[in-house]
Write a structure and sequence with these properties.
The protein is an alpha/beta fold and 309 residues long. The protein is built from twelve helices and eight strands. It has an eight-stranded mixed beta sheet, sandwiched between helices. The longest helix has 20 residues. The protein is globular, with a radius of gyration of 19 Å.
Length: 309
């Protein structure tokens, strides 16, 4: 019996070894060090294995799938099945953690005896890609609601929760993305979800950066990684967020007022009946199951997959 719980960190990845190195490095810089890192390659054909091995850390393991699945659900499920920890964290291969991320979440899940906790994230360069981003929005009650889009990189959960709720569903079974579908199932099951009001994750989303997989662009990751450990960087991105939100909410047009009239009762219905509007929007936008993932594959420069037939 160890004094602190082992955290299993699952990172699924596909042919972005030049980005993965920054993500793994931020894990190794954590103040909480009792973890294992399980990297699952979705049939990687680049030098991902060499990059993982270059860290020369016995806590890191790599497993490469024999066939490419095309999205995160199956690799993340395999990672869970290979995990040993009492606690589990999924980390997107292009997201970066501040050093206190794990310690803050481990402390909170223990203090509150929650099933799942999550912290704040901030999408990097969100001003440029604003229309793609759901910026973090929380509430006075500090309560999770199903209309919030919360990236898996910000979660920490009890591993037994996956056994109770079930594995991630494939994108080809659902209209929404697999991570948000799984979190919605946790919410509907009445599990205890606690929000930690700390910014601990920087997201550099490939799903809104055109041809991000083809071009293997890493300048943003290099820039953030080299600056994120300074107080000035965190202050600058929080200032940018505050400026954006102040401008957004202080400049309300007549059109926005009319929207708000309908938004309040809509939010009431969403909360009362535990609806997930993001899933419904995906039905109308993408038309068919798996449409969301194929949309993001196109943006990233990857071909569509057809798993419905």
């Amino acid at each position: 019996m160890t004094l602190t719980p082992l955290v299993s960190i699952v990172i699924s990845t596909f042919n972005r070894s030049n980005i993965l190195k920054y993500t793994i490095a931020t894990v190794l810089k954590q103040t909480y060090q009792h973890f294992e890192i399980i990297v699952i390659g979705d049939h990687c054909t680049d030098d991902t294995e060499e990059v993982v091995n270059s860290f020369a850390d016995d806590r890191i393991s790599f497993y490469n799938l024999e066939e490419n699945f095309g999205e995160q659900s199956y690799p993340n499920n395999i990672g869970f099945q290979r995990s040993k920890g009492e606690l589990l964290a999924w980390l997107n291969h292009d997201d970066l953690w501040y050093p206190e991320h794990l310690q803050v979440l481990v402390d909170e899940i223990s203090r509150t005896d929650s099933d799942l906790v999550y912290s704040w994230y901030l999408p990097y360069n969100f001003q440029q890609f604003n229309r793609f981003y759901n910026l973090p929005v929380f509430n006075e009650e500090n309560k999770h609601y199903p209309f919030l889009t919360i990236p898996a990189s910000t979660w920490l959960l009890k591993s037994k929760l996956v056994t109770e709720i079930g594995l991630w569903k494939s994108a080809w079974e659902i209209y929404n993305v697999p991570s948000q579908n799984w979190l919605g199932r946790v919410y509907k099951a009445g599990k205890k979800i606690t929000i930690v009001n700390r910014l601990t994750t920087i997201a550099i989303h490939s799903g809104c950066r055109k041809d991000s997989y083809l071009n293997r662009e890493e300048s943003e990751h290099e820039e953030v990684f080299n600056q994120m450990y300074t107080a000035e960087f965190r202050e600058s991105i929080l200032t940018e967020l505050c400026t954006h939100m102040a401008y957004r909410f202080n400049r309300i047009s007549l059109k926005q007022y009319i929207k708000n009239i309908f938004k309040i009762p809509l939010n009431f219905l969403i909360i009362k009946y535990q609806l997930n509007p993001n899933a419904w929007f995906s039905v109308f936008i993408f038309k068919k199951k798996g449409g969301a993932v194929n949309h993001y594959r196109s943006v990233r420069g990857l071909p569509h997959l057809n798993r419905n037939n």
